[in-house]
Write a structure and sequence with these properties.
The complex is a heterodimer of chains A (248) and B (623).
Chain A lengths: L1 H11 L6 H16 L3 H13 L5 H14 L2 H15 L3 H13 L13 H8 L2 H24 L5 H31 L2 E4 L3 E5 L8 E6 L3 E8 L2 E5 L5 E5 L3 E3 L1
Antiparallel strand pairs in A: 1-4, 1-7, 2-3, 4-5, 5-6
Helix pairs in contact in A: 2-3, 3-4, 4-5, 5-6, 7-9, 8-9
Chain B lengths: L5 H14 L2 H4 L4 E6 L3 E3 L4 E8 L6 E3 L6 E16 L5 E15 L3 E5 L3 E4 L2 E4 L3 E6 L6 H9 L37 E7 L3 E3 L4 E9 L3 E8 L6 E7 L6 E6 L2 E15 L3 E5 L3 E6 L6 E6 L3 E6 L16 E9 L3 E3 L4 E11 L15 E3 L3 E9 L2 E14 L3 E5 L3 E6 L4 E6 L3 E6 L49 H26 L3 H21 L6 H20 L8 H10 L4 H19 L6 H17 L3
Parallel strand pairs in B: 2-10, 12-21, 23-31
Antiparallel strand pairs in B: 1-3, 3-6, 4-8, 5-6, 7-10, 8-9, 11-13, 13-17, 14-19, 15-17, 16-17, 18-21, 19-20, 22-24, 24-27, 25-27, 26-27, 28-31, 29-30
Helix pairs in contact in B: 5-6, 5-9, 6-8, 6-9, 7-8, 8-9
Classes of the chains: A alpha+beta (248), B alpha+beta (623).
């Protein structure tokens, strides 16, 4: 009995993957995908994500596998996560476009494209923006400090460097701020369930305002119990089950 | 015109011959018999030829009859020829020849009894023919000589397709050597092998024939022997009986091929093959008769592959003659698109046992498990074929890659040596993906064919290389980011503060300055102490005066140097200096002037007093 319990515990305990083991799981999953054994491929990619190897590549492959399996919600969720991790890549965009063509929901009356800050965040590399901001910021203040230490005839150059640094730092700071906003201030999600009812109130018997279907990207505004208030791109809002929405 | 004398001469000769014909009947006949062998085996046949030259009319021949021999077949022929006698007359020579195919029924020194020719004038006998009969089979040397010449071969333009160096016909056992059974010699079942010794994995061909001298209607059932110890495959299995003429031991037969199988032995040793059995119907329609026939046993000697020259880790199934080829579908491919590489092995041998080494791909390419396609072929009874391994190779980076040569060792049983089939290295260039064409679905871009599929309708392939890292934490969320952002500001503020501090330090403080100057004055007075006992009195008193003036300036905050005694007195009074102290200052200044400029006035006593007064003044001066 004890051994049975022990084996059950060990079987469920998350194992650590070394990079080599992770690569082996990755390759095995790719092979399974090539054999059209999508269930096994998905299992492998999910294991990798679950063990902390959720890079953009792994998320992209997971999303593509989901799409091949017909799991539209999972596909959009994984592909959007891959997009956030690695930026917009041609293959991600192509598969996301393919997923959108299969979506049941066509949001009418809303904005046709993403908000400016989201587009700015997607268009700018996050790490590079942060590094650029740090560099320009440091250069500006170092120039200010140097101005006080340099002889008077070279102080003009220090002032010019300082001015240029702060001028260039301003838009870069804007890009970083957009990333911060998207990460911290924008709580987005993807509808995972095949069909979800959006209600006027966060309770079971609440009046249904509209229905959403798998793959639709929504904004999650607040939570109440097991409900979350979502907002569609066209402004429609409603309460729906939290379990049916995957957070990005 | 030439005279036509030739036709008259021919007519005359014919007339002469006919006129002499009665003389033929009067000639004595020649009568003899002979055998084509002197030594035979009990399983061999021989020919007994009985020749009668100019047999008399009405004569009868009695061929030899004995229980020691059996007659398998009998043929008779007659030859006639003109014979010129040299005297202008001629005769006709007539030769009757009987050919008997016989076989001894027992071993020993036997005698074929004489033949007898009975004519009107009596009985003539031939000489008996003695024969040495041995048990089994005895080689016929005359037959060897005739066989050495070999059959003439025709040029075969397809002799190398698809099998290289394919020069063997199905070299079956010679019909001369097929033993004719003692019973059922008119219809028997015979299995033959094209060779009696092969290597493990080398093909031997088993052929099953029915030899018949009677009309054959059908073969109802056929049970093949169990071919244990072999991997076998049908080469020929006729659905209809088709006869071909064969002479077995001098006896003409109709031979019907029932089955031909390729045998590939799997282990060395002598492998026995049991007899086949068949139910055969002879005759036609209602005159048909069903008979059962059992074939012969066979033995095949199987040799192990020679160890000499065997490559290490040689696959035992690679026996035959093989050649290898590698064909990529394209020499240039876009990144993300697969390229199919076909490894084709073809040749002669047991294709299904051939082991082909896997395709090795360099780093940057990835090969998936191949799809294997076999196509069996046979030529002149020899098995072979083509095996194709299709590898799906997925590029993982751009560049030029060389697929190394594939090498497959095999044992060539014909030349009895090991050889290696190898390919040339193949180069594949992987280029970056071409710019995407913005084609609307279903609308072919201009200049392209109609069958252009809209690329946005297909699922993009997986990525085959991944960064195995967790979800990246943004740089701005990391712990070091805020300190790094604040550090330049702090540095700048530090530099700024240091500057202020430095400027502040540079600013004059009156009290401090007074104290500083007072300290300088006391120091100067201390220096004057050094001059008290040595040096000039003017120097000593000059130092004391400078110390006093410096002290006064430090304490009162105005310059004393250019003032007269009265002006100094007024200023000191204005600063609240008491009259007694003012008198002390003015007296000490006068004392210094006296010591500096009055000769003899600066003695040691005066110096000591001036120094003491100056020290008391400075010490007692209120802070």
């Amino acid at each position: 009995m004890i051994s049975l319990l022990l084996s059950a515990v060990l079987a469920q305990a998350p194992a650590y993957y070394s990079p080599t083991e992770a690569e082996a799981v990755f390759n095995a999953s790719n092979d399974a995908y090539a054999r059209e054994d999508y269930a096994k491929a998905k299992e492998g990619f999910e294991k990798l994500v679950g063990h902390g190897f959720g890079s953009a590549d792994v998320l992209y492959n997971l999303g593509t596998t989901d799409l091949a399996m017909g799991d539209l919600g999972g596909a959009v969720l994984a592909l959007e996560r891959a997009r956030r991790e690695g930026g917009p890549r041609e293959d991600i965009e192509a598969n996301l476009a393919l997923a959108r063509t299969r979506q049941l929901d066509k949001v009418v009356g809303g904005q046709t494209e993403e908000p400016f800050l989201e587009r700015l965040a997607l268009a700018t590399p996050e790490s590079a923006s942060a590094v650029a901001l740090l560099s320009l910021w440091s250069l500006g203040f170092l120039s200010l400090a140097a101005r006080r230490l340099l002889p008077s005839r070279r102080r003009g150059m220090a002032v010019a460097v300082c001015a240029l640094s702060f001028v260039f730092a301003a838009p870069v700071a804007g890009a970083v701020a957009a990333h911060v906003y998207v990460r911290r201030g924008l709580d987005e999600g993807v509808v995972l369930a095949q069909s979800l009812s959006a209600r006027e109130l966060p309770r079971e018997g609440g009046k249904v305002s509209f229905e959403v279907h798998a793959g639709l990207k929504v904004l999650m505004l607040e939570e109440s119990g097991k409900f979350v208030r979502i907002r569609l791109p066209n402004g429609l809002e409603g309460w729906t089950e939290r379990e049916g929405v995957g957070a990005l | 015109m030439r005279p036509r004398t030739g036709s008259w001469a021919v007519l005359a000769a014919l007339w002469g011959a006919l006129a002499s014909a009665p003389a033929l009947a009067q000639q004595r006949p020649e009568f003899r018999q002979s055998a084509d062998r002197r030594e035979v085996g009990t399983e061999d046949t021989f020919r007994l030829t009985v020749t009668i030259t100019n047999p008399p009319d009405g004569s009868s021949l009695k061929l030899p009859q004995t229980d020691d021999f059996e007659t398998l077949s009998k043929q008779q022929s007659t030859e006639m020829s003109f014979q010129s006698l040299g005297t202008g007359s001629s005769s006709i020579r007539r030769v009757q020849k009987w050919t008997l195919v016989m076989r001894a029924n027992k071993a020993g020194n036997l005698v074929v009894p004489p033949s007898e020719l009975t004519t009107s004038s009596g009985t003539i006998k031939t000489e008996p023919v003695p024969l040495t009969v041995k048990k089994g089979h005895v080689e016929d040397k005359n037959a060897d000589r005739s066989a050495a010449a070999g059959p003439m071969r025709l040029f075969d333009p397809f002799q190398n397709f698809p099998f290289p160096q394919d020069q063997d016909d199905l070299d079956e056992q010679s019909p001369q050597n097929i033993p004719i059974p003692r019973s059922d010699s008119d219809l028997f079942l015979r299995a033959t092998l094209d060779r009696d010794s092969v290597y493990v994995g080398e093909q031997a061909t088993l052929s099953l024939y029915i030899f018949s001298r009677v009309d054959l209607s059908s073969v109802d059932t056929l049970s093949m022997p169990k071919l244990e110890g072999f991997w076998s495959e049908d080469v020929d299995s006729p659905s209809q009986l088709s006869a071909e003429q064969r002479v077995v031991g001098g006896v003409p037969y109709h031979a019907y091929l029932l089955k031909r199988r390729a045998l590939f032995p799997v282990k060395p040793g002598v492998v026995k093959i049991g007899p086949a059995e068949a139910d055969v119907t002879t005759g036609f329609l209602f005159a048909g008769r069903r008979v059962h026939r059992k074939g012969n046993e066979l033995a095949l000697r199987v040799r192990a592959l020679p160890p000499a020259g065997r490559p290490p880790s040689f696959p035992a199934g690679n026996v035959g003659v093989w050649r290898l080829n590698v064909e990529p579908t394209t020499a240039q491919v876009e990144l993300g698109q697969p390229v199919t590489v076909k490894v084709v092995v073809e040749g002669r041998g047991n294709m299904r046992s051939v082991s082909i080494p896997p395709l090795q791909v360099p780093q940057g390419l990835r090969a998936f498990d191949p799809t294997i396609t076999d196509k069996a072929l046979s030529s002149k009874g020899r098995m072979g074929g083509r095996r194709t391994l299709e590898y799906l190779v997925m590029p993982q980076q751009t560049g030029t890659f060389t697929l190394p040569a594939v090498e497959m060792p095999y044992f060539d049983p014909e030349n009895e040596r090991y050889d290696t089939a190898r390919t040339e290295p193949v180069t594949v260039t992987v280029v970056g993906a071409a710019p995407k064409m913005a084609a609307a679905p279903g609308v072919a871009p201009e200049g392209l064919g109609k069958n252009v599929l809209a690329e946005n309708q297909t699922l993009r392939p997986l990525r085959y290389r991944a960064a195995f890292a967790g979800a990246a934490v943004p740089l701005w969320e990391r712990a070091f980011f805020a300190p790094l952002m604040l550090a330049p500001v702090a540095l700048w503020l530090g530099v700024l503060g240091a500057g202020f501090a430095r400027a502040a330090a540079k600013r004059e403080d009156p009290v401090a300055r007074q104290r500083k100057r007072a300290r300088a004055s006391r120091a100067r007075l201390a220096a004057a102490t050094q001059l008290q006992t040595r040096g000039e009195s003017s120097e000593f008193f000059g130092e004391v005066e400078k110390a006093l003036i410096g002290f006064l300036e430090a304490r009162m905050g105005f310059s004393v140097g250019g003032l007269t005694r009265d002006e100094l007195d007024v200023k000191m009074e204005q600063r609240g200096v008491t009259a007694n102290r003012r008198a002390q200052v003015l007296g000490l200044l006068d004392e210094c002037d006296l010591g500096r400029f009055a000769p003899g006035a600066g003695g040691s006593g005066a110096r000591e007093e001036a120094l003491r007064n100056a020290m008391e003044l400075m010490e007692d001066w209120p802070a």
